[in-house]
Write a structure and sequence with these properties.
With 186 residues, this protein is of the alpha+beta class. The protein has 4 helices and 11 strands.
């Protein structure tokens, strides 16, 4: 599947002429023992292309957002209560085109000074997954699994086994870039 996306990105003529814009936030924060965590969410169900999937908080760019960074911060606040005033650092990652939903997503990494519990938007977020940095960088979480894609047969795709969750698709691609950055820094 990643090879198919790579081909699409190398041939922009195959991309949709009017993709929608979105942004997500990879928020890293300390717990009370000063261990660093990354926040993931489990999306609520429904009929959407990304229902029930593990994701980073975020969503669609709105006309009133100044830029995609503001979109990521606004959506993270709306979905899980991350306070933009407690974000101390933001770094843009590689944008990613998601064919099934026709979005170009701009991910951002951020340091978050979490002082309050997460507050979930029940209509969008089923629950949060707090991933310790020590788990995120481990090689044994990288694996593959068979996935039923819409309008397609089952395909074996790479992803991450994090606790009882399977993270694949666009979120897995973003986590791969984050892991590469972290491994270079560690």
């Amino acid at each position: 599947m990643w090879a198919q996306r790579e081909k699409l990105l190398k041939n922009p003529g195959k991309l949709s002429e009017n993709p929608k814009k979105a942004a997500v936030l990879a928020a890293f924060y300390p717990d009370l023992n000063e261990e660093t965590y990354l926040l993931l969410i489990k999306r609520q169900g429904g009929n959407g292309v990304h229902a029930h999937q593990i994701a980073l908080p975020g969503g669609k760019h709105e006309s009133y957002d100044l830029d995609l960074k503001e979109t990521a911060l606004r959506e993270a606040y709306e979905e899980v209560g991350i306070l933009p005033a407690q974000i101390s650092y933001v770094r843009a990652l590689s944008s990613l085109y998601i064919p099934p939903s026709n979005f170009i997503v701009q991910p951002f990494m951020a340091l978050y000074d979490k002082q309050l519990p997460f507050v979930l938007a029940a209509s969008e977020v089923h629950y949060v997954i707090e991933v310790p940095l020590s788990v995120l960088v481990r090689e044994d979480i990288v694996t593959s699994q068979w996935v039923q894609l819409s309008q397609s047969a089952k395909v074996k795709v790479p992803g991450f086994a994090i606790g009882d969750e399977w993270v694949w698709g666009a979120t897995a691609m973003m986590l791969s870039e984050i892991r590469a950055i972290l491994n270079d820094a560690l």
